[in-house]
């Protein structure tokens, strides 16, 4: 049984022992970086720079967002990429036993510890030539200067809202000069990966050049919720019984307790109640495993898919950082359940993307709409999918979510007709916590 | 009841799949990065045990391999085994150093596995003669095998297995099996007793009316249609439109009656004849006793039922009251049970056939197929069949940039293997890599002819020379992921494995599955 304390050191020429089978050590990426190629980055469909094999690779700073299923793979892949890197990794989560089937930098003894710190420590020990700095916390708690320092961001997040925030922040860093040209030094690529069971996707986002994450939120439909009347009155499937137990029964029975989806006691209670209800209605199939799946919205996950997607992401990142080969333009989908289907294509930017296009959104609304109704139907429940928007016009603050004093002062506006709050031709500016730093411009016309 | 570390994967392959994994020994030949990455993705999910066979007695390729370090007192096989075992305390690993080098003649699986454990072999980055020797041994001894290669920015995964009956493809059925054009007796009876008359419908309260499951709505509209169309069903587009209009007319408050909206959405179920299944071709290719028993039993069923397969028994959720839904579901489950019993009664011979297998057979009858990978393709002397050549020629190609298509990179990889066979080394491994290009081009031309393909662009060939069989970790990790995914499918007998080659072009980040 090996000791965990084995330390790697860089290979020296004395170590080269050619055995009797005449096996030569294989060359690595390092050698490829010094050999000219007819497929250098400049020849690709998304040309980011020119490959110069005569210059050794410079040290680059990379941010890895998420130290879970994708994050562990990404860190390993970066460490073994043969180029000098200064890596930072951020994750707010702690290690759970159900992570251990794929998050291979963690062991049973690490359950409960910080993912970012444990992952960083493991990589530093196995690959001591690489710097890895962990950050425990929310991505939203870091300021713009933190993000500005990186040459590339690789994201292995597991939820859409965080991706939207990260995307808005990084795209928001891009400066345009007075002529309207992009300042290339402010463009930081985001390589974003996601997996679910045997499927996944890897994409390269070059802010203001390729489509960004916000351009494509329609392709991620909002999580399906069972209709309340089904849950309450006509349950038919075991999932309906579980939903009843945790959405309706739990708050009723424990009005002062916040449901802890990671608490075995809470989950057990929900399971028992769901089972009782199912029995009452003659419905079969409620299990503890299904209960966990419904309450926690569990997505099946395996090591193999994470390995594929993470490696595809890091491959793109390394090609971007060294230009030694072409970058893909810009989105790869992978489905591995029935044979393997993968498709790589250029996902076109959305013309009215609130994050990466500068255009003003035109909206036509009923003349009788109040500000609050407008916010609900046109900003929250619409394709914009904002969470808690604030609005200003050139002449007044319409509604501000924060700070509390301003919220109180502008609250009366919510019930006023929108038509009384804005002048014809005024452009409204909307901000929202989901789209950090982004100002969405609206031009509103009223139906007669 | 406590959280199981395998929870997230059990949701993909269940307890049966997990047990199959636990019963398997994976043999890895050569602890290269592609090999150790494949093995990592099998150790983590709990394969029973593994064995690493290697022949490197001092060469340490640790710069691209997470499971090696640069110490020289341990062999590559031992190092890799020890690091891999750390990943999962449930798994035991062992290693075997073949001193004097791993050469084709020395590879004998039977010697390694005198006890009959379920084995799967991964051959990682093996040069042609060794690769072929392993493949031949595995073919002869009926052991599934996966060959993985990472070669510069190109990755290749190839599987070889005895013919496999795909009983559990886990297809996501978009068409519910409701049998509305040929209702089984219990369904017909339930309809006639409860929903066959105008009077019954008129007597329903508005709540009841809005909670009748849509299959009964469709059966009723279908009945009315037949009465006014001499027993026929809608066939033309206009008739189908009319049929849907009849459903809407029947509703009292269509916009608020979800069941009627679902009836319109699923109207095609009322007039599309059920899919019939013909499995004669499956029987003709069958060698395994167990498979023969299953297929013959299914064939009896099909012959008895005009080619219509057993009822699946599962119905999708639909707008309905609890009682209506539960009762309707029960009808289908009962019929599925009847059909299962018929098939089981016809399973004569091999008594090792399990109920679970029969259930899978019945539920997946519409999708049944063989996976026939054939023996692992050799490189030199390979002549694909006409069908294969046609398929390859028609392979999806990127029109703007044909050179991105993964198929061409396989050809380049094959040319490099042929180069090895001639020169006993790979092209481009020395600093003066351009010198190897002319000879590699000869191999490239040979491969193009052999595969019946043509591409004028020679840049691919030159890039392959530039690669010099480089071990690039990211590519090794991609193929390690793909190979382990395929291994899981072969071990668990679930999902559909590739037939038979996956090629990853890491320049364009494009992959393709090809049948060689």
From TrEMBL, chain A:
The keyword Metal-binding does not apply. It catalyses: ATP + [NEDD8 protein] + [E1 NEDD8-activating enzyme]-L-cysteine = AMP + diphosphate + [E1 NEDD8-activating enzyme]-S-[NEDD8 protein]-yl-L-cysteine. Residues 363-447 form the E2 binding domain. GO terms for biological process: protein neddylation. InterPro entries: E2-binding, ThiF/MoeB/HesA, ThiF_NAD_FAD-bd, Ub_act_enz_dom_a_sf, Uba3_N, Ubiquitin-activating_enz, UBQ-activ_enz_E1_Cys_AS. Its EC number is 6.2.1.64. The active site is at residue 229. GO terms for cellular component: cytoplasm; nucleus. Pfam families: E2_bind (PF08825), ThiF (PF00899). SUPFAM superfamilies: Activating enzymes of the ubiquitin-like proteins. GO terms for molecular function: ATP binding; NEDD8 activating enzyme activity. Gene3D superfamilies: NAD(P)-binding Rossmann-like Domain, Ubiquitin activating enzymes (Uba3). Chain: B, domain 2, Ubiquitin-like 2 activating enzyme e1b. Chain: B, domain 3. Catalytic subunit of the dimeric E1 enzyme, which activates NEDD8. Belongs to the ubiquitin-activating E1 family. UBA3 subfamily. This is NEDD8-activating enzyme E1 catalytic subunit.
TrEMBL record, chain B:
Residues 6-504 form the THIF-type NAD/FAD binding fold domain. InterPro entries: APP-BP1, ThiF/MoeB/HesA, ThiF_NAD_FAD-bd, Ubiquitin-activating_enz. Pfam families: ThiF (PF00899). SUPFAM superfamilies: Activating enzymes of the ubiquitin-like proteins (SSF69572). The keyword Repressor does not apply. The keyword Electron transport does not apply. One of its GO terms (molecular function) is NEDD8 activating enzyme activity. GO terms for biological process: protein neddylation. This is NEDD8-activating enzyme E1 regulatory subunit. It comes from Fistulifera solaris.
């Amino acid at each position: 049984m090996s000791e965990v304390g084995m330390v790697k050191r860089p290979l020296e020429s004395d170590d080269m022992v050619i055995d009797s089978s005449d096996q030569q050590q294989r060359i690595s990426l390092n050698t490829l970086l010094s050999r000219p190629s007819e497929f250098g980055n400049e020849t690709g469909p998304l040309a980011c720079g020119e490959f110069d094999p005569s210059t050794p690779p410079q040290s680059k700073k990379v941010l890895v967002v998420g130290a879970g299923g994708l994050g562990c793979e990404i860190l390993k892949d970066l460490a073994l990429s043969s180029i000098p890197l200064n890596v930072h990794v951020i994750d707010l989560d702690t290690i759970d036993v159900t992570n251990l089937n794929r998050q291979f930098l963690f062991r049973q003894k690490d359950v409960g510890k910080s993912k970012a710190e444990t992952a960083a420590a493991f990589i530093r020990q196995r690959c001591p030539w690489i710097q890895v700095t962990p950050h425990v916390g929310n991505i939203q708690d870091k300021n713009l200067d933190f993000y500005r320092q990186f040459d590339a961001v690789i994201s292995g997040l597991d939820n859409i809202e965080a991706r939207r925030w990260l995307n808005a922040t990084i795209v928001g860093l891009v400066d345009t000069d007075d002529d309207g040209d992009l300042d290339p030094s402010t463009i930081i690529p985001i390589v974003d990966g996601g997996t679910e069971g045997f499927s996944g996707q890897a994409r390269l986002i070059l802010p203001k050049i390729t489509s960004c994450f916000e351009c494509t939120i329609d392709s991620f439909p909002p999580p399906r919720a069972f209709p309340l009347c089904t849950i309450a009155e006509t349950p038919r499937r075991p999932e309906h019984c579980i939903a009843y137990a945790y959405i309706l029964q739990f708050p009723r029975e424990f009005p002062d307790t916040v449901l802890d989806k990671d608490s075995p006691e809470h989950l057990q209670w929900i399971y028992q109640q769901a089972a009782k209800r199912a029995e009452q209605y003659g419905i079969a199939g409620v299990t503890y495993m299904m209960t966990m799946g419904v309450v926690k919205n569990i997505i099946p996950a395996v090591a193999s898919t994470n390995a594929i997607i993470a490696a595809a992401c890091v491959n793109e990142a390394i090609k971007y950082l060294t230009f030694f080969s072409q970058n893909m333009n810009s989105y790869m989908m992978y489905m591995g359940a029935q044979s393997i289907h993968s498709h790589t294509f250029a996902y076109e930017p959305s013309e009215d993307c609130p994050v990466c296009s500068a255009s003003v959104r035109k909206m036509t609304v009923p003349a009788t709409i109040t500000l609050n109704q407008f916010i609900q139907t046109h900003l929250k429940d619409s394709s914009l999918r904002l969470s808690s928007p604030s609005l200003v016009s050139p002449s007044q603050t319409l509604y501000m979510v924060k700070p509390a004093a301003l919220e109180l002062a502008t609250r009366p506006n919510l019930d006023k007709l929108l038509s009384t709050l804005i002048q014809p031709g005024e452009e409204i500016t909307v901000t929202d916590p989901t789209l950090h730093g982004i100002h969405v411009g609206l031009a509103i016309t009223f139906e007669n | 009841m406590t959280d199981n570390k395998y929870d997230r994967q059990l949701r993909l392959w269940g307890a049966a799949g997990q047990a199959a994994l636990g019963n398997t020994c994976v043999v890895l030949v050569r602890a290269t990065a592609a090999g150790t990455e494949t093995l990592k993705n099998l150790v983590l999910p709990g394969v029973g045990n593994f064995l690493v066979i290697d022949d490197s007695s001092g060469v340490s390729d640790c710069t691209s391999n997470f499971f090696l370090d640069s110490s020289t007192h341990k062999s590559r096989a031992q190092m890799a085994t020890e690091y891999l075992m750390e990943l999962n305390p449930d798994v035991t690993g062992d290693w075997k150093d073949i001193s004097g080098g791993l050469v084709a003649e020395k590879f004998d699986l039977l010697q390694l596995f005198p006890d009959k454990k379920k084995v799967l072999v991964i051959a990682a980055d093996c040069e042609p003669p060794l690769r072929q020797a392993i493949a031949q041994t595995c073919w002869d001894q009926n052991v599934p095998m996966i060959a993985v290669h990472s070669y510069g920015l190109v990755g290749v995964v190839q599987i070889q297995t005895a013919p496999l009956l795909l009983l559990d493809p886990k297809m996501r059925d978009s068409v519910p099996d409701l049998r509305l054009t040929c209702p089984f007796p219990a369904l017909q009876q339930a309809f006639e007793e409860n929903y066959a008359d105008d009077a019954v419908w008129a007597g329903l309260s508005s709540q009841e009316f809005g909670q009748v499951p849509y299959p009964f709505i469709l059966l009723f509209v279908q009945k009315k249609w037949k009465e006014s169309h001499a027993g026929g069903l809608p066939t033309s587009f206009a008739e189908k439109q009319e049929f849907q209009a009849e459903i809407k007319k029947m509703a009292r408050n269509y916009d608020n009656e979800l069941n009627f909206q679902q009836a319109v959405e699923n109207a095609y179920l009322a007039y599309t004849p059920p899919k019939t299944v013909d499995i004669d071709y499956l029987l003709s290719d069958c060698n395994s006793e167990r498979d023969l028993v299953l297929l013959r039993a299914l064939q009896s069923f099909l012959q008895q039922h005009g080619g219509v397969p057993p009822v699946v028994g599962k119905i999708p959720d639909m707008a309905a009251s609890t009682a209506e839904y539960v009762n309707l579901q029960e009808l289908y489950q009962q019929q599925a049970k009847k059909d299962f019993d018929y098939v089981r009664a016809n399973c004569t011979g091999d008594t090792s056939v399990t109920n679970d297998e029969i259930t899978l057979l019945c539920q997946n009858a519409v999708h049944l197929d063989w996976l026939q990978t054939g023996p692992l393709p050799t490189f030199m002397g390979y002549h694909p069949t006409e069908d294969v050549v046609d398929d390859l020629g028609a392979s999806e190609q990127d029109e703007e940039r044909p050179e991105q298509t993964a198929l061409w990179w396989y050809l380049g990889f094959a040319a490099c293997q042929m180069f090895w066979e001639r020169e006993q080394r790979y092209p481009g491994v020395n600093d003066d890599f351009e010198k190897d290009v002319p000879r590699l081009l000869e191999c490239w031309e040979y491969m193009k002819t052999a595969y019946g393909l043509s591409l004028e662009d020679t840049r691919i060939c030159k890039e392959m020379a530039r690669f010099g069989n480089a071990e690039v970790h990211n590519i090794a990790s991609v193929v390690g992921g793909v190979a382990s995914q395929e291994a899981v499918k072969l071990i668990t007998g679930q999902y559909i494995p590739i037939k038979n080659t996956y090629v990853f072009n890491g320049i364009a980040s494009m992959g393709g599955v090809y049948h060689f």
